[in-house]
Write a structure and sequence with these properties.
- It is a single chain.
- The protein is elongated, with a radius of gyration of 34 Å.
- It folds into four domains: 64 residues, no CATH class; 91 residues, Penicillin-binding protein 2a (Domain 2) (Alpha-Beta Complex); 330 residues, Beta-lactamase, CATH 3.40.710; 68 residues, Trypsin Inhibitor V, Chain A (2-Layer Sandwich).
- The strands form eight sheets. The protein has a seven-stranded antiparallel β-sheet, with helices on both faces.
- It starts with 11 loop residues before the first helix and ends in a 9-residue tail after the last strand.
- Helices cover 32% and strands 21% of the residues.
- By secondary structure, the chain is α+β, with helices and mostly antiparallel strands.
């Protein structure tokens, strides 16, 4: 009988064998193993990428450097930032393998490989590979240890909002602040050491290399500049300046002047556009000085009362339409005894006769002067050797400070741009400013009541205007208030200097505004463009403040990395392989004996790269005066403090 095999199950336990897994189990196991492998690879790539990024900074080693600190508005919106960039060049005679070197450089720096290899094989002194190369790319180049490759520090200062608040911020050349906040707080903005100069803070508040947080509100600043552009276009003025301040704190919320300039390319701007007239120029308050005389009379205890425009017949200009909030009324320009015209509000306020000595005494008691009202010196902001505040004169900021103190309950609050500083870890330290003067709550209360009565019960703000004619006085023929038979004013626009001060709201002021128009065309029969400007700006600013779209909370430093891409787009970076040959743009000036600030300003036309060693006045320069200068010329300045004869060492 033959043997027949049957398919019987094997007893694995009996024979000591393990049961083989089924095909489903084997698929699951392989899938799980694949997931582990892929997941591990991804995790390794992430960790390796982070380590590579961190090691990139470590690779820079001695090449790495600190950059100038940033400037922010009150909501920590960046106004000025610096980037750590490098200039990269290669010396072909030191290159060991031109083909391999060219391939590496072209890949990392996005250059034409064939063209670069050709140039590397030529006998040239050196070749620029890039003037503004990011530190990550420099670290990658260093890893390859390329012979004949060299790097130079090339920091860049970037103002992301262009012309916005340009006169307040100022600008920087070769890491030296040359105007505005950049100049005034230059020591605080500098890193610990830069180009041979060690930054030392003179105030315990500041640490070396502190970020600045300003009082400016970028949203309100944008509103101000937009309305100023309309006012400039309407009046065809040579310049328009405006500043808005919180009278309770003295913080300057917005400040601008038009025409403005772009600090990213300040060398292309005329010097006049870089000045801040509110700080640098003496301003004649004209008819608006009546407010100061009124305050002085109240302070001296003189009995004064509100006037009525119908008290006595005086010559007036025919009615113009004034808009105040939602209410429209007919207004007049009234002649001012000192020359020019004042608006209805000023004509209705008491204008008592008061001795000049008493007026100056009131200003002293009020603490009004150019010196301590704003943390920008007049000479620094004006780029002039002349001090506009000499001899007791007042500039726009001092006038604005006076009006702020007259409506804030008499508090002594100096005007300022700096809100505080912030270190690298985001710790904020508020800046405290103290001013001189006496508190005058009684004077402030009387003036606010008078402003409310003059503006009208429904008016959301008080505004007073003054026009000073720049033509001859007989260009204006006035008509009597009592009849329509008198001669009328000459038709058409005339050229004036205009000044406006406004307070909003009147009972609890949140903003005090000062506007100055230079050489503007005004039609005294038409609606006042300055009044229209003030009306629109104050209404829109109030909406922003009420809606909470403006913030005063300071919490941590924002990420500014996104701004590097914005800077690249604006600059339209071009990486070339040109040889290092000076681009002639004039002769090197003689800088010996000049202050560092004046020397750097004189070098603007040369566009040279400057290395500064020391502090004080220039005692040596290399290259010497008379040699060619240009963008690729390196200038070394030796500066030191000058000791006057007879002075103790």
């Amino acid at each position: 009988m033959g043997y027949q095999r049957r398919n019987m199950p094997i007893d694995y336990k009996r024979y000591g064998q393990k049961k083989k897994p089924g095909w489903k189990t084997r698929i699951r196991a392989r899938a799980f193993l694949l997931i582990l492998v892929v997941g591990g690879a991804v995790l390794w790539m992430v960790i390796a990428g982070r380590q590579q990024k961190e090691s990139a900074m470590a690779v820079l080693g001695d090449y790495s450097y600190e950059v100038r600190k940033s400037i922010y508005d009150r909501s920590l919106e960046p106004l000025a930032v610096s980037f750590e960039l490098y200039a990269v060049y290669v010396k072909p005679l030191e290159v060991e393998d031109s083909f391999r070197t060219g391939e590496i450089l072209a890949t990392i720096l996005d250059l034409d490989r064939e063209e670069l290899v050709k140039r590397l094989r030529k006998e040239q002194s050196f070749i620029w590979l890039g003037h503004r190369v990011a530190k990550e790319k420099v670290a990658e180049l260093i890893r390859h240890n390329i012979a004949g490759l060299y790097f130079q520090k090339a920091p860049v200062r970037f103002y992301p909002h262009g012309e916005t608040a340009a006169q307040v911020l100022g600008y920087v050349k070769d890491e030296q602040g040359l105007d505005g906040v950049e100049l005034f707080y230059d020591k605080e903005l500098r890193p610990r050491t830069i180009q041979g100069i060690t930054a030392h803070a003179g105030d315990q508040l500041f640490r070396e290399g502190s970020h600045l947080v300003l009082t400016l509100d970028l949203k309100i600043q944008t509103i101000l500049e937009k309305q100023m552009a309309l006012l400039l276009d309407k009046t065809q003025a040579s310049s328009v300046a405006a500043m808005a301040v919180d009278p309770a704190t003295g913080e300057i919320i917005a400040s601008a002047q038009l025409p403005s300039f772009n600090p990213n390319s300040f060398w292309n701007a005329p010097p006049q556009s870089q000045k801040m007239d509110m700080v640098s120029r003496t301003m004649n308050p004209g008819g608006i000085s009546g407010i100061l005389r009124y305050g002085a009379a109240v302070h001296a205890g003189v009995d004064v009362r509100m006037r009525s425009v119908a008290d006595e017949p005086v010559p007036v200009v025919k009615p113009r339409q004034l808009k105040s909030g939602t209410r429209a009324r007919a207004g007049y320009w009234w002649p001012w005894p000192g020359g020019g015209f004042i608006s209805d509000e000023l004509a209705e306020l008491p204008d008592p006769s008061i001795a000049e000595e008493a007026l100056l005494g009131f200003q002293r008691d009020l603490g009004i002067s150019c010196a301590d009202l704003v943390d920008l010196p007049a000479k620094a902001a004006s780029n002039l050797d002349e001090d506009p505040c000499a001899g007791g004169r007042l500039n726009g900021v001092s006038l604005l400070g006076a009006f702020a103190r007259l409506v804030n309950g008499g508090k002594v609050v100096p005007l300022h741009f700096l809100r505080g500083t912030m270190d690298g870890e985001g710790r904020f330290a508020a800046r405290r400013f103290t001013g001189n003067g006496r508190e005058m709550p009684e004077v402030s209360a009387v003036l606010r009541e008078s402003f409310a009565a003059s503006a009208g019960a429904e008016a959301p703000f008080f505004a007073a205007e003054y026009l000073f004619p720049l033509g001859r006085d007989d260009d204006f023929v006035l008509e009597s208030q009592e009849g329509d038979q008198a001669s009328s004013v000459v038709e058409g626009e005339q050229t004036f200097d205009g000044l406006l001060v406004a307070v909003a709201p009147i009972k609890k002021p949140q903003l005090v505004l000062l506007v100055s128009v230079q050489n503007g065309d005004f039609d005294v029969r038409a609606a006042s463009p300055m009044r229209r400007f003030a009306n629109t700006f104050l209404e829109e600013a109030a909406k922003k403040m009420e809606s909470g779209n403006t913030s005063s909370d300071v919490a941590g430093l924002p990420d500014t990395s996104r701004l590097f891409q914005a800077w690249q787009q604006q600059q339209k970076l071009v990486v070339t392989g040109e040889t290092l040959a000076p681009t002639a743009s004039g002769k090197m000036p003689d800088l010996l004996g000049k202050s560092l600030r004046k020397a750097l300003r004189q070098l603007m036309a040369c566009r040279v790269e400057v290395e500064i060693v020391g502090a004080g006045r220039v005692v040596g320069q290399q290259p010497e005066p008379g040699q060619e200068c240009g963008e690729r010329v390196q200038l070394r300045l030796a500066v030191q403090e000058q000791v006057q004869e007879g002075a103790k060492p």
